[in-house]
């Protein structure tokens, strides 16, 4: 290859009538001309540009000189007052003494006094429950995520935001019972066609409830419904249409939120009724809420609900409640059910043995 190049260069120089070809030949013999025996790779520059990652420098606001290089303070939302002394008088500083523990009835009575027409003038204000949760999971260094649930209450009350429910089933009797229970719209296969044609907008409904008999026709709407598609896990697919409608229309919807600073701290803030309701009705709704929240407790040692307070806005008072009796009732009920199941198994085994011996 090099000899061919030398011959072509000398021929060109001779044709151009250049007499001083000695210097040129010396350059050729000295390998001054670079010879490549391979082709250059394509796209190397483009690949190098792609490898370069742009580093975005985040702009930080002004930091005082005495705070530079220091770590951010740790935010502690869970307040433990077990080491504080009990208040001696009926007037005390809350940050120096323990919070007093009220019964449910006395706490409701205190909120009724503050919402009297002579004070806040809001006797039908909503009664909220503020629960603090320990979000540690069963495994170490694992924590629960935030969750949203709806619990049916024995004594429903009027809420500010009404919920619209869509019911899809084949039986006309179930459709009639769903409308009587509070459903907004109820229908069968024609309702599915209206959704596919765009005549009925699913965004106008908060929940979609369906009967299992119409599930094969409902599969075609899975892409349109997405998260609203009925399922047994969410409680929107079942045989008891009337019970599901009443639960989603009049039940209490609550969300357990997780702190972004402390992973094991969570809280729930939801209403359980109004102050003008009977105390026994409020307590029944409160018990139903605690049972449902405690059902999400992970399988580990230690309590799941760490603190419970009753709040009624606009009053800033947070009255601490002794909720252990309601949780103990739940555990005792579970123990009784397990004992009954064990007793039934023992009886069945005794009957079998008696039959075998006989």
Produce the secondary structure layout.
Elements: H1 2-15, H2 22-29, H3 44-51, E1 101-102, H4 104-114, E2 126-134, E3 147-151, E4 165-168, H5 172-181, E5 185-187, H6 189-197, E6 207-210, H7 215-218, H8 222-225, H9 241-250, E7 252-258, E8 265-274, H10 279-294, E9 305-311, E10 319-321, H11 324-357
Parallel strand pairs: 1-10, 4-5, 4-6
Antiparallel strand pairs: 2-8, 2-9, 3-7, 7-8, 9-10
Helix pairs in contact: 5-9
Structural description of this entry:
With 358 residues, this protein is α/β, with parallel strands linked by helices. Helix content is 36%, strand content 15%. It is built from 11 helices and 10 strands. The protein has a 7-stranded mixed β-sheet. A 3-stranded parallel β-sheet has the order 5-4-6, with helices on both faces. It is flat.
Summarize this structure as a short list of keywords or feature phrases.
alpha/beta; three-stranded parallel sheet; 11 helices; seven-stranded mixed sheet; 358 residues; disordered C terminus; 10 strands; flat
Question: What's the average pLDDT?
Answer: 80
Count of individual helical segments:
11
What strand order characterises the main sheet?
A: 1-10-9-2-8-7-3
Number of strands: 10
Q: Roughly how many Å is the radius of gyration?
A: 38 Å
Task: Give the helix/strand class.
Answer: alpha/beta
Task: Give the overall shape.
Answer: flat
SSE pattern: HHHEHEEEHEHEHHHEEHEEH
Low-confidence stretches: 329-339, 352-358
First-last Cα distance: 108 Å
What composes the largest sheet?
7 strands, mixed
Q: What proportion of the residues form beta strands (DSSP E)?
A: 15-25%
Helix content: 25-40%
């Amino acid at each position: 290859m090099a000899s061919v190049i030398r011959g072509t260069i000398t021929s060109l120089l001779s044709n151009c009538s250049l007499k001083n070809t000695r210097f040129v030949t010396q350059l050729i013999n000295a390998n001054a001309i670079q010879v490549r025996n391979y082709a250059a790779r394509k796209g190397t520059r483009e690949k190098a540009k792609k490898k370069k990652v742009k580093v975005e420098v985040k702009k930080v606001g002004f930091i005082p000189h005495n705070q530079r290089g220091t770590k951010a303070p740790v935010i502690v939302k869970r307040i433990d007052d077990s080491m504080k002394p009990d208040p001696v008088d009926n007037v005390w500083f809350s940050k120096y003494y323990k919070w007093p523990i009220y019964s449910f009835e006395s706490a409701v009575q205190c909120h009724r006094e503050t919402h009297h027409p002579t004070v806040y003038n809001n006797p039908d204000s909503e009664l909220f429950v503020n629960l603090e949760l320990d979000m540690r999971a069963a495994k170490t260094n694992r924590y629960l995520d935030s969750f949203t649930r709806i619990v049916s209450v024995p004594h429903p009350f009027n809420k500010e935001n009404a919920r619209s429910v869509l019911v899809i089933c084949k039986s006309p009797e179930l459709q009639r019972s769903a409308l009587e229970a509070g459903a907004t719209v109820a229908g069968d296969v024609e309702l599915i066609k209206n959704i596919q044609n765009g005549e009925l907008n699913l965004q106008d409904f908060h929940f979609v409830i369906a009967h299992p008999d119409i599930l094969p026709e409902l599969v075609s709407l899975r892409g349109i419904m997405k998260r609203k598609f009925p399922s047994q896990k969410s409680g929107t697919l079942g045989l008891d249409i009337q019970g599901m409608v009443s639960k989603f229309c009049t039940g209490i919807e609550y969300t357990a939120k997780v702190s972004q600073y402390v992973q094991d701290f969570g809280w729930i803030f939801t209403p359980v009724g109004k102050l003008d309701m009977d105390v026994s009705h409020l307590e029944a709704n409160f018990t139903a809420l605690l049972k449902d929240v405690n059902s999400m407790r992970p399988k580990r040692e230690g309590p799941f609900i760490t603190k419970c307070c009753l709040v009624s806005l606009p009053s800033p008072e947070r009255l601490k409640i002794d909720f252990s009796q309601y949780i103990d009732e739940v555990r005792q009920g579970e123990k009784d059910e397990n004992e009954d199941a064990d007793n039934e198994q023992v009886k069945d085994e005794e009957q079998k043995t008696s039959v075998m011996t006989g």
